[in-house]
Design goal:
Length: 243
């Protein structure tokens, strides 16, 4: 029952994340104007902004101008619904859900902004970094958060310097945020999972000849997925590092 409520909360949060993903890139305000079609600017009524369902009923088109709506909309909504539900199933009704949901929302937004446009905005990284530090103070794991931040941020800074453009400055700041939320050794787990996923993806691209040896792949989406897994399944992963 509660799981279903958290799934709904995730769906609705996903709607807002879509707004963030598509407005932040244009430096638009997140709150004004209200829900509108980004192609014809028509104001949307309540039944046109129901997560996932509206997209299905409108057959992926704007009711006013007929422009195709991004498939990203329902994907983001479903992903955050499932992620919120999984988080609740893993951690139960605890205070852990608060940093968990903030981190989840941040990671989904970052993954799609980096995937779509190759940009991880400071306007996301900096506030989330501060929120993460405050939450870790409150939850008594500030030392783990600081070690995670310095370790992962430092590692990315080194890669940034030596890869000469293989990694963006946004990735380094993203690494700081992930370090704070995942702590130590979670941050290491996040990096490890992300690297394995990215390597598998690269091999698939190479084998299917969709990319050559010199093509660059965006690391943000993999890092987001790896960090999320490392955060939610922290117990299992830290156990793995001890063994
Ligand atoms: Zn429209």
């Amino acid at each position: 029952m509660l799981g279903g409520l958290f799934f709904l909360l995730g769906l609705m949060s996903g709607s807002f994340l879509n707004v963030v993903i598509y407005r932040l890139i244009k430096r638009d305000s997140l709150l004004f104007p209200g829900s509108h079609c980004m192609y014809c600017q028509s104001k949307l009524r309540f039944f046109e902004i129901i997560p996932v369902l509206s997209y299905v009923f409108l057959k992926g088109q704007c009711r006013y101008c007929g422009h195709k709506l991004p498939l990203v909309y329902p994907i983001v909504e479903l992903m955050s619904g499932i992620a919120f539900w999984l988080l609740y199933m893993q951690r139960g009704m605890t205070w852990d859900l608060l940093p968990g949901y903030i981190f989840t929302a941040f990671l989904i937004t970052v993954a799609f902004m980096d995937g779509l446009w190759g940009i991880i905005p400071d306007r996301l990284n900096y506030p989330t970094l501060v929120i993460g530090l405050l939450l870790s103070l409150w939850m008594h794991n500030i030392f783990s958060a600081l070690i995670g931040m310095i370790a992962l941020g430092g590692l990315f800074l080194l890669i940034f310097i030596f890869s000469q453009g293989g990694l963006g400055g946004g990735d380094v700041k993203l690494a700081l945020v992930i370090g704070v939320f995942c702590g130590w050794p979670g941050a290491l787990g996040a990096f490890f999972i992300a690297s394995v996923l990215a390597a598998v993806y690269a091999v698939v691209l190479l084998v299917s000849k969709k990319a050559g040896l010199k093509s660059a792949i965006k690391f943000g989406p993999f890092l987001a997925l790896g960090s999320w897994a490392a955060w939610v399944y922290a117990d299992i992963i830290s156990l793995g590092f001890i063994i």
